[in-house]
Each structure stands twice: as structure tokens, then as C-alpha cells.
Design goal:
Order of helices and strands: HEEEEEEEEEEEEEEEEE
Strand order of the largest sheet: 1-5-4-3-6-8-9
Structural class: mainly beta
Oligomer: single chain
Radius of gyration: 26 Å
Number of helices: 1
Number of strands: 17
Length: about 240
């Protein structure tokens, strides 16, 4: 009887140790001490652009950067996503240093770069969240996409430069050059605002300049389709700067 009781007690201890082990997060990071955050996106539920409705939603591989009151920052990754609400739970990424107390700020991605690289897909959009003392963020998308649909038999696009009404130019580079013998989409991430000029350069360094007196308006969290009739894409040798 005594032996049976000892075995039962041993089994209970093993069971307790097993339960305690499952409750401890120990993967080489400070996840057990760093705060856990939730985050939603204002007016939408995606971080990648939906080509049909222009909205955005969290994806499983998304990461955000969170900064605490001491200005220390850490990368956070998604642990889970609530499909009903679109809200994601973020935990500190392996190898990052635990954050201190708030208030906290957060960003997703980087702002639209003036130098961008061609991608066949629309890509992800830059977002920010206001400072908060809570563990919950509400992100707002800070840019939109210009979607250029180009067709011109015999031409390949090397770069596309889009200039804003305030004279800031965002250039998309294609390496290798992208053929537009059949229709092709080009996506350029831009801050919301008005854009007055688009300069398309082909693989032979000829250019096609498209001006808009009224400007093409880009709104945050939306795609602005800008289609062009191939007959209007007239490429010509660039005029040397010293001739202008």
C-alpha cells in the first residue's frame, strides 16, 4: 500500500512539472517579461492591398516595430489573428530585448521610398499607430498605390518616375526591364496627395512624359488605377540637360 502511495505521489509530481513546463515560454527570448500587444487597422483588416477593393488585412508573417517610453525599440511578430475582428496579437520576436514601460508607439513597414524596386505584386503599405499607454494599437495606413497599366508593343520599361505637386519624385526601377508588349501593371507606393508628372523610361533610355495639369490624386489605403492607351505612350530620345 505504501509503495502504491509513493508511486501515485511521484506520478502527480511528474504531471505538475509537465503542466508548469507548458506554461513557461523559454525559447531564448524575453517573451515572458516583455508586454504582449494587440493591433487593429482603422477602417480595414489587411496589410496587403486587395486589388479589388483596395483595403488592407493582417497576414501571419507581419511584423511591427514597437518603441517604449525610454525610446528602446523591438520587433514584434504575430502570434494569432482574430478572423472575426481582424485584430492581431503580437509577441516580441526571438532575439529581441524586452521593452520597458509605456507609453508605446508602433510602426509597420517604412514610408514610401523615393527609390523603389519593381514587383509583380502590389506589396504592403506603410502604417503608423499613435502613442498609447495601453497594450492595444490602432494603425492607420499612411500611403496609397498608383497602379499604372501599360501596353506598348515593342517597348520594355526600365523605370517610372512620378513627381508630386510639391516636386518630390518617386522612382520605380525595373531590373530587368519589363516588357509591355502585353498589358502589365506597375505599382508605386506614394503618400496621399496630388501627382502632376509621370516619366516612363524604356530599355533604350527613351522617355515618355505624361503631364496632368489637374494632378492625379492618391488617397491613403487605396489603389489609384491609371490606365494608358498604348497609342499615347510615345517614347522619344531624352533631351540632354545642357540643351534645355
Amino acid at each position: 500500500m505504501k509503495k502504491t502511495m509513493i508511486l501515485a505521489a511521484f506520478a502527480a509530481l511528474v504531471s505538475l512539472a509537465s503542466c508548469q513546463k507548458e506554461d513557461v515560454i523559454d525559447n531564448g527570448t524575453e517573451k515572458s517579461t516583455s508586454p504582449v500587444f494587440t493591433a487593429s487597422i482603422a477602417g480595414s483588416t489587411k496589410t496587403t492591398v486587395d486589388l479589388y477593393d483596395g483595403k488592407v488585412a493582417w497576414e501571419a508573417d507581419d511584423e511591427i516595430t514597437i518603441t517604449d517610453a525610454s525610446s528602446a525599440s523591438a520587433l514584434y511578430e504575430i502570434e494569432s489573428i482574430d478572423e472575426a475582428t481582424g485584430k492581431a496579437t503580437f509577441v516580441i520576436k526571438d532575439g529581441e530585448t524586452a521593452l520597458g514601460s509605456g507609453p508605446y508607439t508602433a510602426t509597420y513597414g517604412t514610408g514610401p521610398a523615393t527609390a523603389q524596386t519593381y514587383s509583380a505584386t502590389a506589396g504592403k503599405l506603410y502604417m503608423t499607430a499613435p502613442s498609447t499607454s495601453s497594450k492595444s494599437f490602432t494603425f492607420t495606413v499612411q500611403c496609397g498605390l498608383m497602379k499604372l497599366n501599360l501596353t506598348k508593343t515593342g517597348e520594355s520599361v526600365k523605370s517610372i518616375a512620378v513627381t508630386s505637386s510639391s516636386d518630390v519624385t518617386y522612382t520605380l526601377t525595373c531590373d530587368p526591364a519589363q516588357s509591355i508588349a502585353t498589358a502589365k501593371d506597375f505599382f508605386i507606393a506614394l503618400p496621399d496627395g496630388s501627382y502632376k508628372k509621370i516619366v516612363i523610361t524604356d530599355s533604350n533610355s527613351k522617355v515618355c512624359t505624361l503631364n496632368s495639369a489637374s494632378g492625379v490624386t492618391i488617397a491613403a489605403n487605396h489603389i489609384k488605377p491609371v490606365p494608358f492607351d498604348g497609342s499615347k505612350l510615345n517614347f522619344a530620345p531624352a533631351v540632354p540637360a545642357d540643351v534645355l
